[in-house]
Amino acid sequence: MSQISLLSSANSLSRVVLVDKSSYWVGLDVGGTKLSISLVFENDEPLNLGYMNLSSLSDIRDAASQLLGDFTLKDANGIGVGVAGWISSISKSVVFSPHRPELVGVQIPALLNDSSLSRVVLENDANCAALAERDNSWGPLSVIVNFGTGIGMSALYQGQLFKGANGFFGELGHCYVGGSLLCECGATGCLEAELRSCFVSDQDKAEIAAEKKRRYVMLGAHGVSWIIRIMNPSEVIVGGGVPLGWDSFVEEISAEVSRYFPSSHSFVLPKFKAATYKEFSGSVGAAILARSIFN
């Protein structure tokens, strides 16, 4: 057993625990613009190794090696890969990816220079984020919404991942919200496209930035209100890259959502909370998935 310093996701404090560094599972989260990596050890302790920009899939092996440091993919018990794409539960492959079209038809083990298909499992990144929340979820139905390059959604019912008939459940970002903006998926008026138009740039003046943020919260809450009306979840877990630099984002979304539910409806709104592992939810969940399969 070796001592290793782990960063607590709850309070950002470092703590030292004992782990067997020779036995671990790797989780990779291949997002629209970044790659993040986490490990899970025998005692279920996660270790987040970091993230870096990923401009091309051809860079994934070198980026993974840099982030892994003393750990390697070769020595891992199993590898979980979360991707920003639609994964068929029948073919177990990426059939569509608005932000990473090059993922379609690609053999992920080949990208990782790992010839063993049996050691690698592929899953949607939002579903991986849900698996990371399973031990911390509250109530029978938890919905996870990730606001980032896109907007991803997943759900846990009675602790089990809900994936729909063909594995395409939760594509909230590609629901029509109005407008004429062309989405990367090829449709117009998608919630995701409208949200991306609200991203603040360094060139935006203060009043423009404030208006963009206001509209982002309004649109985000609009989408979340659909989930609540249709699914009646016990909690909504908010994650993704957007909340990282926006301390009040979860509270603002929650407050805005309430405007869609007049008190006369007597509708019980779900609890709102931030994702446990923040920007590493996808990679932690991918490692947890790998451990559940290759154990």
Report on the structure:
Helices cover 26% and strands 26% of the residues. It has 295 residues and is α/β, with parallel strands linked by helices. It folds into 2 domains: 2-129 and 287-293, Nucleotidyltransferase, domain 5; 135-278, 2-Layer Sandwich (Nucleotidyltransferase, domain 5). The strands form 4 sheets. The chain has a 5-stranded mixed β-sheet with strand order 5-4-3-6-9. A 5-stranded mixed β-sheet has the order 12-11-10-13-14, with helices on both faces. Strand 3 (24-30) and strand 4 (34-41) form a beta hairpin. Helix 5 crosses helix 6. It starts with a strand and ends with a helix. 40% of the residues are buried. Residues 7-14 have low confidence and may be disordered.
Largest sheet: 5 strands, mixed
CATH topology of the largest domain: Nucleotidyltransferase, domain 5
Structural class: alpha/beta
Oligomer, anyone? Answer: single chain
Q: Separation of termini? A: 19 Å
- Give me the CATH superfamily of the largest domain: ATPase, nucleotide binding domain
Question: What is the class of the largest domain in the CATH system?
Answer: Alpha Beta
Q: Which SSEs are present, and which pair or pack?
A:
Elements: E1 2-7, E2 14-19, E3 24-30, E4 34-41, E5 46-53, H1 60-68, E6 79-83, E7 86-87, E8 94-96, H2 108-111, E9 120-124, H3 125-133, E10 141-147, E11 151-157, E12 160-162, H4 191-196, H5 206-231, E13 235-239, H6 249-258, E14 271-274, H7 281-293
Parallel strand pairs: 3-6, 6-9, 10-13, 13-14
Antiparallel strand pairs: 1-2, 3-4, 4-5, 7-8, 10-11, 11-12
